[in-house]
Input
Amino acid sequence: MKKAFLNSFFMNRLHLPALFQPRGFTALVGVLALFLAVLAEPAMAQAVAPTEGFGDGPKLVIALIALVWVILAGLKTFSASMRSQGVRLFNWNKVNAVLMVFFLVVFMLFVLWHFLKLMKFTLPVSASAHGVELDGMLSVTFWITIAVFALTQVLLFSFALAYRYKEGRKALFYADNHQLEFYWTVVPAIVLTVLVLYGTKIWREITQVQPAKDALKFELFAYQFGWQARYPGADGVLGGHDFRLISATNSMGIEETDSAGRDDLLVSEITLPVNRPVLMKLRARDVIHSAYMPHFRVQMNVVPGMPTQFYFTPTVTTKQMQEITGNSNFVYELACNKICGAAHFNMRMKVNVVTDTEYATWLSKQRTYFRRPEPAQELLSAR
Amino acid sequence: MSTLAHSHDPSHGHGSHAHDPAHGHDGHGHHKETFITKYIFSQDHKMIAKQYLLSGMLMALIAAGLSLLFRLQLGWPDRTFPWLETLLGEWGKGGRLDPNFYLALVTLHGTLMVFFVLTAGLSGTFSNLLIPYQVGARDMASPFLNMLSYWLFFLSSVIMLASLFVESGPASAGWTIYPPLSALPQAVPGSGLGMTLWLISMVLFIASALMGALNYITTILNMRTPGMKMTRMPLTVWSFFCTAILGVLSFPVLLSAAVLLVFDRSFGTSFYLSEIYIAGEALTRTGGSPILFQHLFWFLGHPEVYIVLMPALGLTSEIIATNARKPIFGYRAMVGSLLGISFLSFIVWGHHMFITGMNPFLGNVFMILTLVIAVPSAVKVFNYLATLWRGNIRFTPAMLFAIGVVSLFISGGLTGIYLGNAALDINLHDTYFVVAHFHIVMGSASMFGMLAGVYHWYPKMYGRMLDEKLGYLHFWLTFASVYLVFFPMHFMGLDGVPRRYYQFTGFEFMTEWMDMNRFISVSAIMATAAQLIFFYNFFRSIRYGRVAPQNPWNANTLEWTTPVERLHGNWPGEIPHVHRWPYDYSRPGAPQDFILQTVPDEDLPLAARGRPTNEALSGAAVTERAKTPSAQPVASSSVFIARLLHRIGLRRA
Ligand code: HEM
Ligand SMILES: [Cu+2]
Ligand SMILES: [Cu+2]
Output
């Protein structure tokens, strides 16, 4: 009698318990989340102001937790009292099943949001020739994986809802299907084979080619915590080096006795002429570093005792890239990307890509590595 | 000894085992347990499992705490937090983290999570708990070695944590401890005493892992109860088996890498050192190769990631089948892919080294092998989906976490396809893309597997049930926050943002991620806070949880035939024999929707006897109905290996 009354009261007139039905419940959670978001917005904005601690952040969080707690506790007592009257508010299995699909929807929107909003924060078009190839490969991989991602996640969460426990239903006894298994082994294998063939092709083109004769050679030297670059002089040849020669006045350990090195230039910013192949020679002084120029899709570790190199062709000048990105302050940057100690995060070097004429002017202004073009007489005789 | 004798004498199954409660039918046997032998130097696999679990949980809490400290730095690089100085002294001077200490935090966080939580805490707990239970043994092959394994692990944990208290700080060369950074105290303060402690701790850890793994392998091969063929083992046991083999074959290589590093650090050798000028002098030790260390490290390192993941997948298989009330789809393919992954994981290590200066030709080889490993991984995902399909799913907290594992494994596995491609890796290596990849596929998926396991087998550990509603809350909060934390990191990686950076203020192109970093930090705090719900639930339920019924999930495996009360020796009477595989769920004709492995065909109605065949599909969804298992190209090799292992097992039994 009482139960019937309650049922009719809530179900038919006020529709209150609908809120606690799984569908309604998820809606409730959604509204709640929205509410919290609106609430959090100004506080977040306000929280940016202080320079110490979190500002009002923690208070806000505590308030939110308290709020959620109160709501949950309320629901709990309510559901307990209802249960004592024989009304079961929650079918938890169903709640969870519905939440699965709710999660799927929110998750997919979340992913979509990332692509719409965050993609523009990611790297602009490649500033190097091989990078364009590489980006093509990236987008092929992207479309393949995103399709598999969407398909499998959708199946996973919707199976969760569709096949949730129902009283009296029996699961299908279905232990294998060799044909199906054969297909879902072979199809990924084929797709991956395509990716591998494509990938090895590009990898070989990038790393296993003979550098062009007219390639600009320069040396990049990494140390804790900074970079130095050395350009060959007019002879186009970098002088020899030996780590034992490193000293306060010879920071890269260049052999002063090697005549090829005497006209080498010490530069503080890498400057490259556009569209000319570059062979970047890498050397480290102390620990492993990594020369990373994301805009050029260039990265190679810099290993003490084991010179490495990277061969590429910059194709977009800094000025052009400023136009492309719409950011007049845009600069190319070189970062260290292998943990190397305390100031690892601060190992930056500026990279400029310029036209040939600008390059020639820039080059003429660089000073030689050794202040004196000829090695000091006393040094030579000391040897 | 023949199989005949074997099947007639149940006490035979545990060979050399010292305890033999088979003749103590009162259950507790005839020997007294003191507090020390029961709780501390226990040789009981169940107690050791709990010791591992509690240690793992503690380490997880500490590791998460460390991560919050550095997330604080990343999220709010422009603020000071005076309490940091109170907490950390010199390392938190002026309320800001010291950059060296930041690196130490990152290093210790990674080390603790990968080795102490997800290797010891996960494998240690569940291999110990479930192997004897599920193969039908009274204990491990060597309970003593098992005890030793835990205590070595304990010692190594203490030493690792102690490194937090040395003046020059803990190791800070990253969890991968690449030399020369890790070899030279001049390079970073953490490479002083902190690194020494790291190495000592890891040597002990490796010894512990080996003892554990050898024990697991021996137990699985030799101590299965009559009828428990290799092909009737639950996938949990299969996954522990593969994991243990990986550990035995790969951990010694890490040991050798570590020992050589010790030599370089302390005895003047130069295995890894060459042409180094540091702190104002040129080292006289030359001729070594830093790349050698990376080869050795990743020869363990890659198998290690599967050592971490496979047990989670095993637990997931079991939990999904049980709660979907369906046989796991493609049991043989599941075993086959475990074996395939195990084998392949030894020959893909070079994908961590594409741009180290390693000969680029090798890059091709490792790229091919790496993408091959994605195939068995894909098979596993599809099989999970097929297991859910047309099931009758009960969403226990364990099941929720198991579904979480599948979702995370998909998300993180797919990004592996980017990274495994040497060409793409040029621009992604060591960026946040990698951080996203491995935190999702290894960190989160394995952690979810572990949590699923705890929710599912808690009744077997404590005889009580965890609170389900708190479990739901825990799951949903954790699941949401894990994606909130790690998904955006892909995009930071695609923008070329490097990992292990103290702050992102020095570079023009990284500054736009400030807000995102703050968002991630807030989400990380939320994720950690959600774990407190779990801790509360865990400890509260030990005393106040609902008393567990005999078989709370109506599962098929042997552990649910043991009494709820803990019992040294597991079964009060004879060890039950096994008559079927573990996945007879919802078998047509059976009186219930599960059939314990111990039930012989004679006890079943005629319709439910014999070799299980697929139920006819109604509707037109799939028209091709599989016949009784025939040798298909996919399964045959796995079946062959399974048989082979089976042979070995029989011969030794
Ligand atoms: C589909 C299969 C997978 C592929 C193809 C794959 C590929 C890769 C590659 C190529 C890297 C190196 C990235 C780099 O440093 O530039 C990597 C990193 C990593 N992967 Fe995977 N992965 C896969 C699945 C997994 C799984 C299942 C786990 C763990 C359970 C895992 C854990 C890791 C970890 C921990 C790292 C980073 C190690 C570090 O540098 O600190 N991966 N993965
Ligand atoms: Cu660095
Ligand atoms: Cu790997």
